[in-house]
Design brief:
- The protein is an alpha/beta fold.
- The chain has one domain: P-loop containing nucleotide triphosphate hydrolases (Rossmann fold).
- The chain contains eleven helices and five strands; from the N terminus they run ααβαβααβααβαααβα.
- The chain has a five-stranded parallel beta sheet with strand order 2-3-1-4-5, sandwiched between helices.
- Helix 2 runs parallel beside helix 11.
Length: about 280
């Protein structure tokens, strides 16, 4: 069994480049993760180790109450947002993790600006928040399905950047993961949803409509990644064809984000010798 890659190496391999980058072509990027984890056994061992450390760091984050971590999970249908979430935080206390799934906007949400529902769901200090889909739907499905005027969508990229900068400057670290699955693997997983009774509830006929729009979604994702990867809220492209490698890569990145925050248990100001418990 080989050694897991260093966190900095995972960051370098998955980060969307901010300087001197050429036009992003998602179809040319790897989706298997073999360059980071040669074998699944190493990936699974790395995941277990990182998931354990994530629990410890989250406990300190909750006690310190100074910062929050927002993990954004985006990816086309079947990319594995649910599976990644379950694996990365499998040892973490639910006390300090809040998951918010973004679906079709409600009437109340539509009565506000498009970022209102995202801001309302932000994690409190001391917590990890996970967005399963996110405010980026407003430059993805809304763009591909033409649910808003092109001019309005064009404005949103910089609006989102400034929104995330505001969050960053006020104590929320943002880690954005785009789960990159191939069209071939998506086909395998869609068939699996139909054939496996326990997974059939996840199948939605509209997923096949979106599959027909693969090229348009790929272009929308590429624009999103190019326009909204910033120094304060970078995007990472996580290969997602291999579930074990996908989860291990995501866990390395989440652990790294928490280690950067370096949460510390606060000193309450009293010492054990001051008290006597009978």
């Amino acid at each position: 069994m080989s050694s897991p890659p260093k966190i900095d190496d995972v960051r370098a391999a998955t980060a969307v480049k901010l300087k001197g980058r050429t036009k992003l072509k998602l179809g040319e990027l790897p989706t298997n993760g073999h360059s980071l984890f040669e074998d699944k056994k190493t990936a699974k061992a790395s995941l277990d180790d990182d998931a354990t450390v994530i629990d410890t760091l989250q406990d300190a984050l909750y006690a310190e109450q100074k910062h929050a971590l927002l993990v954004v999970l985006q990816g086309i249908d079947t990319a594995g947002k649910d599976g990644t979430l379950k694996s990365v935080f499998k040892f973490t206390s639910p006390l300090g993790v809040r998951v918010h799934p973004f679906g079709r906007p409600t009437d109340l949400e539509l009565a506000h600006d498009y970022l209102w529902r995202a801001h309302a769901a932000m994690p409190r200090k001391g917590h990890i928040g996970v967005f399963n889909r996110s405010h980026y739907e407003d430059v993805l499905v809304v763009k591909v399905r033409k649910l808003a005027p092109p001019q309005a969508i064009e404005q949103r990229y910089e609006q989102i950047n400034q929104f995330e900068k505001h969050l960053h400057e006020n104590g929320t670290r943002i880690l954005k993961l785009m789960l990159h699955v191939s069209r071939k693997e998506q086909g395998v997983r869609l068939r699996e949803r139909l054939e496996v009774p326990q997974k059939r509830w996840k199948f939605n006929p509209s997923d096949l409509e979106d599959r027909e729009l693969w090229d348009q979604y790929e272009a929308a994702y590429a624009t999103m990644l190019e326009r909204c990867s910033t120094t304060w809220a970078p995007w990472h492209i996580v290969p997602a064809d291999s579930r074990s490698r996908r989860d291990a890569i995501a866990a390395r990145l989440v652990r790294g984000a928490l280690e950067d925050l370096n949460p510390q248990y606060p000193d309450p100001g009293y010492r054990p010798e001051q008290f006597e418990i009978d």
